């Protein structure tokens, strides 16, 4: 009773957060916190409605959703997967902004604990020095608590070998079953699950000796399966199913299933059969019930990888190769089509790549996601910081089995892998290398597009691509070109045989380290030179001019600003023109916003045409070659001079022009200034106070235009 009282008393402590605390900076996937008074301020940015992007102010989102007011209070925060778009709105005195997409979201609700959930008394921040991978191994009680809270069963080394819930080799000793209540106030980032994801059921472990028989029995009800099997035991199981197998060699007769494939220079030791699901088969949509599935849903949330549950102490930290600073994820093919021997070749290849890259804290970091029917994280970017530990970990990865659902794996990586909690560094390009045996068993185009729009550079390594007589079984023709970052051949490598995989180690390393060519790292928010052209004429007035500056600041806030990302410049005009600041003047967002605030109202006439010419010469001639040149002009009246010729000259020099008219602005001039189609690049509002309405449409248009660029 005494112990229970102490535990309950400790759980009542609620950590306090600041108004500017962002959900993405807090590692805990679910927590209760207390917001201070005074968070209803425009400087605490909020993105979304009901579901908020993770770089929103947590307390600002709570006020926006009506959970608390400006006096503060307790809130419950639950992190969920990222969304393709966030809708801005005005609610409870807080205006939230829209956003095209973000990798992580969160929900806010009343600060009452959910039944059965232990909440941390202190919060873990990604900027702190603490990390999930600690110098000494976790105590068994902590490991078991993490597993129990995720809904998994007691995991011993034997259970790991059977491959249901964890990876063999990640644990150094069996986990005992304790007889005490495991309640603690120690913050455990992986100790809770969120509402949008159901708790993982306790898996039933099947002995390894009976797994093949069970899998074969489960497959009897799935006629028409077409997927390659290259392992002797798997071929026998396939024969037991009565499946229509087709060899890639000279004979396709079912009676010749155990004949070796034609000699390609290296004799294969096991017979080869090939079978795939037909594209229209219902079985393709309803996957078989297999032994691995119960243990996989733990990773669908993206909040915990296997290393988070059982962190392994690192031997040493390597600085790595500083000329190759990339955050790299390999999508490892764990499908049954590959067979055990070729799965081992794949692991050897990944180990060799890790060695050749020069993994280290100041160089490339590498994580691995294995996919089959469903993807799961083997380890993330921060788990291993030197090639030796990484190679040892790769060697211990067991094969998942299942189909080759590459599209599903790309969606998983896009939503879950490249997060601050998983070691994403922000300044390093995000790279995904997809290993695929033959061809995927699902569609990849949409998942790949969303990943590219998030700034992920997608490479494909295709081994033993479909032969002519097999192409009819490929669900999505030209899937590589539909998936990769660019279709110029740089992002795809085709290998004729798994036994030749070692030959592409150096070519692949050279490509992923060529950061100048990783063009998909550039997104609509980090790859532009934006020049604002601001009407400072007498008709605007001092008060309205400050409203215009706030509008300019609100647009600028949405971009990633630095000397290598988006840069901002500004020109004010009347009869004359004044360069307020150039693209290279300020390299941080805060400096840019401060500079906008300091712009003083000029007052005078309205010579918009001369202002466009001046901006083209003073700003955009100094734009970087790899930047998109965007001009945003705001005016409240008709120009005293011609705008058509200067605007046409700017368009011909590659400037994308947006025109925003207020009050007495002339519609024909706005359309002449705007880039075609002018309806999408020109806006009009009757009052200055309504300018804020154009922040989101303007940014969405910039992003839509960026993402529709050709990929050749």
TrEMBL record:
Pfam families linked to this entry: LCCL, VWA
Entry annotated with the keyword Secreted: yes
Subcellular location: Secreted, Extracellular space, Extracellular matrix
Biased composition (Polar residues): 119-131
GO cellular component: interstitial matrix
Job description of the protein: Promotes matrix assembly and cell adhesiveness. Plays a role in spinal cord formation by regulating the proliferation and differentiation of neural stem cells.
Protein name per its UniProtKB record: Vitrin
Organism: Anser brachyrhynchus (Pink-footed goose)
Underlying gene: VIT
């Amino acid at each position: 009773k005494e112990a229970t009282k102490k535990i309950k008393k400790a759980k009542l402590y609620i950590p306090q957060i600041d108004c500017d605390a962002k959900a993405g900076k807090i590692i805990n996937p679910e927590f209760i916190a207390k917001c201070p008074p005074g968070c209803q301020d425009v400087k605490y940015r909020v993105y979304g409605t009901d579901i908020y992007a993770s770089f929103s102010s947590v307390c600002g989102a709570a006020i926006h959703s009506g959970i608390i007011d400006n006096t503060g209070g307790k809130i419950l925060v639950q992190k969920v997967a990222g969304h393709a778009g966030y809708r801005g709105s005005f609610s409870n005195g807080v205006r939230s902004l829209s956003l095209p997409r973000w990798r992580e979201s969160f929900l806010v609700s009343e600060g009452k604990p959910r039944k059965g959930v232990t909440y941390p008394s202190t919060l873990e921040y990604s900027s702190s020095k603490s990390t999930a991978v600690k110098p000494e191994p976790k105590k068994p009680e902590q490991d078991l608590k993490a597993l129990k809270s995720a809904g998994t069963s007691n995991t011993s080394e034997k259970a790991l070998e059977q491959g249901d819930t964890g990876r063999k080799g990640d644990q150094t000793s069996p986990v005992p079953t304790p007889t005490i209540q495991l309640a603690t106030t120690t913050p455990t980032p992986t100790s809770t699950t969120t509402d949008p994801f159901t708790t993982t059921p306790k898996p039933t472990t099947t002995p390894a000796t009976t797994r093949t028989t069970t899998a074969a029995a489960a497959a009897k009800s799935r006629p028409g399966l077409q997927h390659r099997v290259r392992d002797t035991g798997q071929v026998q199981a396939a024969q037991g199913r009565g499946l229509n197998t087709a060899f890639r060699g000279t004979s396709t007769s079912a009676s010749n299933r155990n004949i070796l494939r034609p000699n390609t220079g290296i004799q294969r030791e096991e017979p080869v059969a090939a079978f795939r699901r037909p594209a229209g088969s219902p079985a393709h949509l309803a996957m078989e019930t297999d032994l691995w599935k119960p243990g996989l849903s733990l990773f669908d949330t993206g909040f915990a990888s296997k290393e988070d549950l059982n962190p392994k102490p690192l031997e040493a930290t390597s600085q790595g190769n500083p000329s190759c600073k990339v955050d790299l994820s390999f999508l490892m093919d764990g499908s049954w089509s590959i067979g055990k021997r070729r799965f081992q070749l794949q692991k050897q290849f990944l180990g060799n790549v890790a060695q050749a890259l020069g993994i280290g804290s100041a160089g490339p970091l590498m994580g691995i996601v294995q996919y089959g029917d469903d993807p799961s994280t083997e380890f993330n970017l921060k788990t291993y910081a030197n090639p030796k530990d990484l190679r040892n970990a790769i060697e211990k990865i067991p094969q998942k089995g299942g189909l080759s659902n590459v599209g599903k794996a790309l969606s998983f990586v896009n939503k879950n892998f490249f997060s601050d909690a998983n070691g994403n560094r922000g300044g390093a390009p995000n790279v995904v290398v997809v290993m695929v045996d033959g061809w995927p068993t699902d569609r990849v185009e949409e998942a790949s597009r969303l990943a590219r729009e998030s700034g992920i550079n997608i490479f494909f390594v295709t081994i033993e691509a479909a032969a002519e007589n097999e192409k009819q079984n490929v669900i999505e023709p030209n899937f590589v070109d539909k998936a990769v970052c660019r279709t110029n051949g740089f992002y795809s490598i085709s290998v004729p045989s798994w036994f030749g995989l070692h030959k592409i180690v150096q070519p692949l390393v050279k490509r992923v380290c060529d950061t100048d060519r990783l063009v998909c790292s550039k997104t609509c928010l980090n790859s532009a030179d934006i020049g604002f052209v601001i009407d400072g004429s007498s008709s605007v007035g001092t008060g309205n001019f400050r409203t215009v500056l706030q509008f300019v600041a609100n647009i600028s806030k949405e971009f990633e600003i630095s000397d290598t990302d988006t840069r901002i410049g500004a020109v004010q005009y009347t009869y004359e023109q004044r360069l307020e600041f150039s693209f290279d003047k300020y390299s941080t967002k805060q400096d840019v916003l401060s500079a906008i605030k300091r712009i003083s109202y000029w007052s005078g006439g309205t010579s918009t045409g001369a202002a466009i010419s001046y901006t083209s010469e003073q700003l955009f001639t100094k734009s970087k070659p790899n930047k998109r040149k965007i001009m945003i002009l705001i005016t409240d009246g008709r120009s005293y001079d011609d705008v058509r010729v200067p605007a046409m000259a700017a368009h011909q020099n590659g400037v994308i022009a947006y025109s925003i008219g207020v009050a007495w602005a002339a519609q024909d001039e706005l359309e002449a200034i705007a880039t075609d189609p002018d309806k999408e690049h020109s806006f009009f509002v009757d009052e200055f106070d309504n300018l804020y309405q154009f922040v989101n449409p303007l940014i969405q248009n910039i992003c839509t235009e960026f993402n529709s660029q050709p990929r050749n």
